[in-house]
Each structure stands twice: as structure tokens, then as C-alpha cells.
Write a structure and sequence with these properties.
Blueprint: H1 2-11, H2 14-63, H3 67-83, H4 95-106, H5 119-162, H6 170-196, H7 201-212, H8 232-266, H9 283-303
Helix pairs in contact: 4-8, 5-6, 5-8, 6-7, 6-8
Family: Belongs to the two pore domain potassium channel (TC 1.A.1.8) family.
GO molecular function: outward rectifier potassium channel activity; potassium ion leak channel activity
Subcellular location: Membrane
């Protein structure tokens, strides 16, 4: 069976082989992640369910509540928690709060703590996101390109003016520099979260990564601006700083992805791009390789 599969792979054209291998890697990675998360998290879930059952039973016996009334009570509490108005004594949809929400929409962070509850609000959210997400993506791409080019030019300047040599490994240096900046931002964000949100340092790091990667689970969310409604200036400052920080962070992530893609195009590490594909499989691959070689030669000539 294994020999048959290898022969089947060898018979495929380069792009088809590439697609098959990458798709296989994707699903294997999904299965691996599912197995790890099940092993780590399932036990905690069972303990939490058991604890909830005990609390529910104690509450039922103490106040002599029927099973139906208990179910209705918890259903209403669950609805209030899911829709974000449980234990909230401020206007979540103030202008500052709404501005914070629109930022989570167009950046695709989507914490989930705020969401439109009306039909018209949901309809508008759909169309707002359709146009807002590409606009935001273009802005972040432009900022990321500027950051990447600025860092690359800095390293070219160091190599030429200080080290008196032709620029070397510019893309690799750029990737490392961008990642150092992103990690520094995460470390600073974690410290701010400890001070302002009362989280642990690790929780702050976790929140920063989930936010800047736009995963946005919603288990940790910055305090709503309207919680500080007695200080309007603070609400405005908080909202502006949050947007600036997240925008710069997302732009840096975009910059990192751009730098990595350029690194892979320049010198694919360990055959990552091809994933076992022979570059001589077809004419298209040969032409692509020749173009890359010509681009590298032009870049070296320009550097000189």
C-alpha cells in the first residue's frame, strides 16, 4: 500500500502533488490538535460539570425550587451571559462602546462579548463587514509593507555603511526583527493587562496572542470603555490607545507574514514551498525558478 501511494505521488504533476501533500498536512495537523486538546481539556470539563451539578442540586434543595423553575432560571441566566448584559450596569452601545465593537468587526478579532441583537443590526453588520474587512486588510497590508521595507532598508544600510559589505540575508534579518518587535509588544501588553485588567502575566500574554492573531475567543476581553463612564476623557483615551495598539500589532503580524513569504520566495527553507515537489516536474516550475533567479541577480546588481 505504501509503495503504491509513493508511486502514485511520483506520477502526479508538480502542482497537483503540492496540493495533495499540503492538504494532507493540513488534515493531519487538525487531527493532531484535536487529540491534544481532547487529552488536556476533557478532564477539566468533566470536573466543571460535576461542580455545576453540585451547586445546582444544593440551590434546588435550599430554596425548594422545582426542576422546571430551575431550568428556566438557568436558561435566562445563560441567555443574559451569552448576550453580554449579565451584571452590566452601563450602556454597552454608547458611541465609545459601538466604536470598540466596529473595531473588532473589521479586524475580524470578534471577541463575541458584544453582538447585534436586532435583525437590522445583524443585516447592517453583514454588509459593514463585507466592505470593512477588505478595507482594513488593505490598510494593514500597506502598513506592513512599509514596516517590512523600513526594516529591510535599515539592515541594508548597516551592511553597506557600517559593515562595508553587500547586503546579506536581508529577508531573514527582517523576519527576526519583526518577530522581536511583535514579541516585545506582547510582553508590554501583558504588563498593561496586569496593571489595568487585573489578569496574571500569562493571561495577558495569552490575550495578546489571541487578539493579534485575530482568533478572538472572547474568554479574555478588555474592560468595556463605558465601565468608566464617570471619566469621559478616559473612555476616549482608552478607545484610541486600544485601536492604535491593535492596529500596529496587526500590521506587524501582516509585516511578519510578508517577510516570511519573501524569505520563502528567496530561499525556500527545507523545501517548504515545494514540500517534496521536484522543480523540474514541468515547464511552469522551471520558468518560475528562472524568474526567481533573475530577480535575485537584479537585486544583487542593484545593491552594488
Amino acid at each position: 500500500m505504501g509503495v503504491f501511494f509513493l508511486n502514485f505521488l511520483r506520477a502526479l504533476k508538480g502542482p497537483t502533488k503540492n496540493l495533495l501533500l499540503r492538504t494532507t498536512l493540513f488534515f493531519v495537523y487538525l487531527l493532531f490538535g484535536a487529540a491534544v486538546f481532547q487529552t488536556i481539556e476533557s478532564g477539566e470539563e468533566r470536573r466543571e460539570k460535576h461542580h455545576f451539578d453540585i451547586v445546582r442540586q444544593n440551590l434546588k434543595e435550599k430554596y425548594n425550587i422545582s426542576e422546571k423553575e430551575m431550568a428556566n432560571l438557568f436558561m435566562e441566566i445563560s441567555k443574559a451571559v451569552d448576550e453580554g448584559y449579565f451584571d452590566v450596569n452601563y450602556d454597552r452601545w454608547s458611541f465609545a462602546g459601538s466604536l470598540f465593537f466596529t473595531g473588532t468587526v473589521v479586524t475580524t478579532i470578534g471577541y463575541g462579548k458584544m453582538a447585534p441583537a436586532t435583525v437590522w443590526g445583524r443585516i447592517f453588520c453583514i454588509f459593514y463587514a463585507i466592505f470593512g474587512i477588505p478595507i482594513t486588510g488593505l490598510m494593514l497590508k500597506s502598513i506592513g509593507e512599509r514596516i517590512t521595507e523600513g526594516i529591510a532598508n535599515f539592515f541594508r544600510f548597516i551592511d553597506r555603511r557600517i559593515c562595508n559589505r553587500d547586503p546579506q540575508s536581508i529577508h531573514m534579518k527582517t523576519v527576526i526583527a519583526v518577530f522581536v518587535i511583535v514579541i516585545s509588544m506582547l510582553l508590554v501588553l501583558a504588563a498593561l493587562a496586569m496593571e489595568y485588567e487585573g489578569w496574571t502575566y500569562f493571561e495577558g500574554l495569552y490575550f495578546g496572542f489571541i487578539t493579534l492573531s485575530t482568533i478572538g475567543f472572547g474568554d479574555y476581553v478588555p474592560s468595556h470603555p463605558s465601565e468608566n463612564k464617570d471619566h469621559p476623557a478616559f473612555v476616549i483615551i482608552f478607545t484610541v490607545i486600544t485601536f492604535v495598539y491593535f492596529t500596529v500589532g496587526l500590521a506587524l503580524v501582516s509585516s511578519a507574514l510578508l517577510a516570511i513569504s519573501r524569505l520563502f520566495e528567496d530561499e525556500p527553507p527545507w523545501g517548504f514551498i515545494s514540500l517534496g515537489m521536484n522543480p523540474d516536474d514541468d515547464d511552469e516550475d522551471r520558468i518560475t525558478r528562472q524568474k526567481l533567479q533573475a530577480q535575485r541577480l537584479d537585486a544583487k546588481n542593484e545593491a552594488r
